[in-house]
Design a protein that fits this description.
- By secondary structure, the chain is an alpha+beta fold.
- It has a single domain, classed as Double Stranded RNA Binding Domain (2-Layer Sandwich), CATH 3.30.160.
- The chain has 4 helices and 4 strands, in the order ααβαβββα.
- Helix 3 packs across helix 4.
- It is flat and about 70 Å long.
C-alpha cells in the first residue's frame, strides 16, 4: 500500500514537470537572458574611459563589467579590439554622495552613493548606447566622517547595481527589435 502511494507521488511530480516543460517551450517562452545575449555576441573587448579625477573607480567599473560579461553573458573577453566581435566602451558619468539621515545631535549617520555610467556597444549584435545608474545606502559611526575605504566600497556596490541594470536594458531592447522584425508589435 505504501509503495502505491509513493508511486502516485512520483508520477504526479513527473507529470507536473513534463507539463511545465511542454508549456514553457510550447508557448515560445524565452528567458530575458536570451534577449540580453543578442546584444553581446562573440568575443568581447571592454574599454573603460578613465576618469582622471577618480581613476580608482574606473578600474573598479572595468572589473565589474568584465565579471558581468563572463558570468551573466557567458562571453569570452579579449585584450585587444582587433580580436573582438563586440566592443563595449564604459564611462563613469558621475559619482555623488548625499546625506540621508542625521542623528539627534545633527551628525549625518546615513549616506547614499549614486553612480551613473554610460555604456556604448558596437558589434555583431548592433550598435547603441545605454545609460545606467545605481545607488547604495550606508551608515557611518556616530559623529564620524566617511572614510576612503567606506566611500570606495559604497561606490563599488552602487556601480555593481548600475551595471547589473545593463542586462535588463539589453534584454528589453533586443525583445523590442525582435517584435518589430516579427511585425507583432
Amino acid at each position: 500500500m505504501e509503495s502505491i502511494k509513493n508511486l502516485r507521488k512520483v508520477s504526479l511530480i513527473l507529470f507536473s514537470f513534463v507539463l511545465a516543460t511542454v508549456f514553457l517551450t510550447g508557448c515560445g517562452y524565452k528567458p530575458s537572458s536570451h534577449y540580453a545575449k543578442e546584444k553581446i555576441k562573440g568575443k568581447v573587448y571592454v574599454d573603460v574611459k578613465v576618469d582622471l579625477e577618480d581613476p580608482k573607480n574606473s578600474v573598479l567599473i572595468k572589473d565589474a563589467m568584465n565579471d558581468i560579461i563572463v558570468n551573466r553573458f557567458q562571453r569570452v573577453l579579449v585584450n585587444s579590439k582587433a580580436l573582438a566581435d563586440t566592443i563595449l566602451t564604459v564611462k563613469l558619468n558621475s559619482v555623488a554622495m548625499s546625506e540621508l539621515q542625521k542623528d539627534e545631535l545633527g551628525y549625518v549617520n546615513l549616506y547614499r552613493a549614486d553612480v551613473s555610467i554610460n555604456v556604448n556597444y558596437a558589434g555583431l549584435g548592433g550598435k547603441g548606447s545605454i545609460d545606467v545608474s545605481g545607488n547604495y545606502d550606508f551608515s557611518v559611526d556616530d559623529g564620524s566622517t566617511i572614510s576612503d575605504a567606506k566611500r570606495f566600497e559604497a561606490i563599488k556596490l552602487a556601480a555593481n547595481k548600475a551595471l547589473e541594470e545593463i542586462v535588463s536594458k539589453f534584454a528589453v531592447d533586443s525583445f523590442r527589435k525582435e517584435k518589430e522584425v516579427d511585425g507583432t508589435r
